[in-house]
Predict the 3D structure of the following.
Amino acid sequence: KPTPRHFLKHLCKSITLSFLKTKIMQLHDALTIPKIFIGLDIHKKSWTVSIQTDLFFHKTYSLPSVSEDLYQYVERTFPNHEVHLVYEAGCCGFSVARFFLNLGWHVLVVNPSDVKTGDKERYQKTDALDSKNLSNQLKAGVLKGIYIPTEEHEQFMTLARHRTQTTKKLRQTKSHIKSMLLFHGIKVPDQFDNSNWSNDFVIWLEELKFSTSCGDLALQGKIRMYKFIKSEYLQIANQMRFHCRKNNKKDYYLLKSIPGIGGYLASVIIAECGDLRRFNTEGQFSSYIGLVPGIYNSGDSEKCLGITPRSRSQLRSYLIEAAWVAIRKDIEMQDYYRKHQGKNVKSIIVKVAHKMARRILSVIKTETPYQINRNLVIEQ
């Protein structure tokens, strides 16, 4: 009669053998399942598709920009194949990638500047050649995809960028009003002649009269436009904060604990980056924002090319602005700034922003609010 110990040993042995058999079958299936590689050149009204298998090149053709049509063609022509697809990021966003990912396809979205091209492609460029080049590089395994956001994240990012566009329109409208006053020789009172428009200044503008009704109508129209854009500007910021407090409450308040980061900037960071925990290192996060230098090194010569042009430009500019606030509020940041005094001021503030980026990732990863070093404050 088997003892419990013998029974347990036999059971573990059976489980181990079963696990190994499963893994061997999976490996066998992975090696025997045929694969196809699709390069997709996406435009608004049409797609150019290049398809090849792991054995031969199939064909290049065009079809309307309908994801379902490509899916039906692949299912009909290549049943039971493992499908790999790639296309370049562009105006069509990530909706196509999410559609095919939901079907179980392997999808890559690549930065267009990361796709290798030869000298020949400089003189011969067509949609068919572009899609075929993507298909070839996908098959060779040399492409590296970018992050594909969820639908919710992408739409929140759209709201944040709408706020940025509204900010630009608000500045434009204010500039148009002041330009009109200057053009007609109307002097703005000294107490109102600055970039911050108070309610008293708006009242002064509304009471201003031109010599003819046409001038009055033009000014009143610009004031109405200014008021509408200003209300939209304030409302979107409140909507972004509310969304973060409701859906990303923990990360929102963790970010706000860092000196220099307020409610709006915290919501912009979440909108542009999504879940910051996906970054493995501080270097990855800083590179994603664009707070790392470009470097050219060849032989014995090396030179810095300045800050990298690859960036989340709006987020990077916000962080650099926030770095000035952090210097005023945080003694440790002040000491860091003084350590680099004598260098180019622009370079120093980028270094401070880089340090802030490291703090941002740290508080999110550790889920611990940032605390100012009180020992430094006492010493000061």
About this structure: Strands lie at 35-42, 46-53, 57-64, 82-88, 106-110, 293-298, 301-307.
